[in-house]
Amino acid sequence: MTQVSSKRIESIDILRGLVMIIMVLDHVRDYFHINAFAGNYPENLESTHLVLYFTRFITHYCAPVFVFLAGTSAYLYGQKNGTKALSKFLITRGIWLIIVEIIINNFLWWFDISYGMINLQVIWAIGFCMIILGLLIHLPKKILLTLGFLIVLGHNMLDSIHIPGESLLSIIWKILHELSCVSIGEARLLCFSYPVLPWIGVIILGYSFGYFYKKGTSIDTRKKWLLILGISSITLFFILRTFNLYGDSMLWSEQESFSKTIISYFILSKYPPSLLFLLVTLGPSLLFLYIIENIKNSVTNFLIVFGRVPFFFYVIHVFVVHVGAVVGLLITGKDWRIMILNNETMSSGALSGYGYSLGIVYLVWITIIIVLYPICKWFMKYKATHKGIWWLSYI
Description:
Blueprint: H1 10-32, H2 50-57, H3 62-81, H4 83-110, E1 117-120, H5 122-136, H6 141-154, H7 168-177, E2 180-183, E3 189-192, H8 197-209, H9 219-242, H10 258-266, H11 275-292, H12 298-307, H13 310-331, H14 343-348, H15 358-385
Parallel strand pairs: 1-3
Antiparallel strand pairs: 2-3
Helix pairs in contact: 1-3, 1-11, 1-12, 1-13, 1-15, 2-10, 3-4, 3-5, 3-8, 3-11, 4-5, 4-13, 5-8, 6-8, 9-11, 13-15
């Protein structure tokens, strides 16, 4: 007899919790790894190695899963509350996320009270996409699904388009599809680190994907499509990537060593995310949902805690990671003020030589996860027992 889902699907929370934990690793590496602020990038073939690169590569799963599952959660919210309520919620929460990104997150990332650089990252992208989705959900679902596929599959055809300068048209293009910064006055930069066009496609596909999790959908049907979509995405990635056919402007090539060739193969465009980037991240994520569907143990319970309070966790982890870097400088007798990041600090060379080994990075990462777990568990329980408080749905 086919089982029918009738309660909250915990696999979504488990996946979200897993990528939240992985996300912290990336940000700890940003703040703690030796010379991370001075050009020691995992994508630099001259200096990178397999462990360093795949420490970075594994974190590529975070943003696509965040955005995709934001769409899925929106679909489920709409099933429960109706399209009109969903549209209002998406637009208002999207505006709220953009405000948080500009005012709160930028301070937590840089500790720069002058806001010399306003960097619009993943929270901005999710907020912007939510606003657009809130407007688009009134379209017929088949048209919406088609639009999502067209954006994700076709946006790389726009890679060669560049609109220089800081005209209105140029700024709109930077917002949509080109990583760049614009000046605000003489002493401030506004950077669009997450151009939003492909992310709009991702949230639309995530919203359409929510159909498989709506009440009354059989688990067998859902798992069948998870398997089909996951394997198809991975297969298409390897076909397109191996022959450098389409889907990423960064082509791979044979290097002087096998390990460097592997790294070259998997260096993909994230800003904005290429088709290949999305295929190799969302495909395995769908297979993870397939595998984890009926698994329940202490590990999944641990992951669920972070998966149910993602926004709360995101904000506090940035603060803890940055403060941790300051504490590390104090302990080692170095000038903690270099962790007040601004254009002057970054360009002065003050951060050259700063940082620790990759082993220390992993140790700090694990420590922060352990420290934040009870805080997130408390907030998860608080939200569950105070559902009547409307503003909790925005945190």
